């Protein structure tokens, strides 16, 4: 099975093979600012993916020192996907909303719950972590 995620204008897209390895929500302030929303919803996939279009990149260092390379569409500004430096060949994280699929699998994990907006409710059974468990 393949899945395609794309930016708002369609200039940048990513095609991924198989089911996501995991789906999660991050409430950290960096993700809130990056997405312009109160959390980021991300799906992790294995290394079999193909990117089409031109991306602008932004590198951010996480709380635990890992460096993440985010890819944005330079036309519409959509933040489509990111990789962790040193692990690009192993996995990619894609913004769930970019699949435009209301049947996409729900999140299994929620990180930085300590920064969750009080009015945000999570689906039953989500594994909650106050910070990043890694």
Automatic annotation (TrEMBL):
Keywords: Lyase, Metal-binding, Zinc. The keyword Lyase applies. One of its GO terms (molecular function) is carbon-sulfur lyase activity. It comes from the Bacteria. Residues 3-113 form the CENP-V/GFA domain. The keyword Zinc applies. Belongs to the Gfa family. This is Aldehyde-activating protein. It comes from Tardiphaga robiniae.
